[in-house]
Amino acid sequence: MMRILITNDDGINAPGLVTLTRIAQEIAGPKGEVWTVAPAFEQSGVGHCISYTHPMINAKLAERRYAVEGSPADCVLAGVYDVLDGAKPDLVLSGVNRGNNSAENVLYSGTIGAAMEAALHGIPAIALSQYMGRDTEDLDDPFEAAATHGTKIIRALLDKGIWTTDDYRVFYNINFPPCAAKAVKGHKVAPQGFRRDTSFGIQPYTAPSGKRFLWIKGGPQHTPTLPGSDAAVNLDGYISVTPLRCDLTAHDTLADLAARLA
């Protein structure tokens, strides 16, 4: 019997979580279990944040369905150590995020943060996101590409993917292209890209009360990354599959730095 824990960063009532629930049920099969532990409210952009300095409420909404007043990483912790009482699931799925988590978005994403937390606890984990754009705006279901192709790509990863058992084990980031399901060209294994000449910024706003606030403003999401990298293949109609690790060490500089500082 397969037991899957699912979460997201868009919140317990997000439509992408409905899509992920269907995908997880197909993966788990009729004898498997799908447990949902998701944020009570939207937690987009919180990254790998955990609620270290204040307590949380974990509310049971239905059988195998819980809402946590915390971040996506909190939800994984609550799911594993409270809801499942320490019995680790066979797989953690996070998403399906509304919007891409390609390129530098990886570093801000709560969707990725949940998968990262699962990987740190030795649990196989996959984050899933749906790139949005003009071609998804008029679809009855903007998550159509993820809904149609999600189960197949996850099964392929579970069957043929690289699942390491080292301390900073591999987990996966999947992004579905901004198009209808029938327009998806296939999938490509791609590295994390970087959108040049665009970034997050600040948008000042003055409220009717006269108080001044600052909004975080995102940059253009359809700026291509280098050829072959995640956002570039997404914009070309392909599902990107990117293996990630929590280890942030710049391994390629270690020997040179040691020699310079000797």
From TrEMBL:
<feature type="binding site">
    <location>
        <position position="10"/>
    </location>
    <ligand>
        <name>a divalent metal cation</name>
    </ligand>
</feature>
<keyword id="KW-0547">Nucleotide-binding</keyword>
<feature type="binding site">
    <location>
        <position position="9"/>
    </location>
    <ligand>
        <name>a divalent metal cation</name>
    </ligand>
</feature>
<dbReference type="GO" id="GO:0008253">
    <property type="term" value="F:5'-nucleotidase activity"/>
</dbReference>
<feature type="domain" description="Survival protein SurE-like phosphatase/nucleotidase">
    <location>
        <begin position="4"/>
        <end position="196"/>
    </location>
</feature>
<keyword id="KW-0963">Cytoplasm</keyword>
<feature type="binding site">
    <location>
        <position position="97"/>
    </location>
    <ligand>
        <name>a divalent metal cation</name>
    </ligand>
</feature>
<feature type="binding site">
    <location>
        <position position="44"/>
    </location>
    <ligand>
        <name>a divalent metal cation</name>
    </ligand>
</feature>
<keyword id="KW-0378">Hydrolase</keyword>
<comment type="function">
    <text>Nucleotidase that shows phosphatase activity on nucleoside 5'-monophosphates.</text>
</comment>
<dbReference type="InterPro" id="IPR030048">
    <property type="entry name" value="SurE"/>
</dbReference>
<dbReference type="InterPro" id="IPR002828">
    <property type="entry name" value="SurE-like_Pase/nucleotidase"/>
</dbReference>
<dbReference type="GO" id="GO:0005737">
    <property type="term" value="C:cytoplasm"/>
</dbReference>
<dbReference type="GO" id="GO:0000166">
    <property type="term" value="F:nucleotide binding"/>
</dbReference>
<dbReference type="GO" id="GO:0046872">
    <property type="term" value="F:metal ion binding"/>
</dbReference>
<dbReference type="Pfam" id="PF01975">
    <property type="entry name" value="SurE"/>
</dbReference>
<dbReference type="GO" id="GO:0008254">
    <property type="term" value="F:3'-nucleotidase activity"/>
</dbReference>
<dbReference type="InterPro" id="IPR036523">
    <property type="entry name" value="SurE-like_sf"/>
</dbReference>
<keyword id="KW-0479">Metal-binding</keyword>
<dbReference type="GO" id="GO:0004309">
    <property type="term" value="F:exopolyphosphatase activity"/>
</dbReference>
<protein>
    <recommendedName>
        <fullName>5'-nucleotidase SurE</fullName>
        <ecNumber>3.1.3.5</ecNumber>
    </recommendedName>
</protein>
<comment type="similarity">
    <text>Belongs to the SurE nucleotidase family.</text>
</comment>
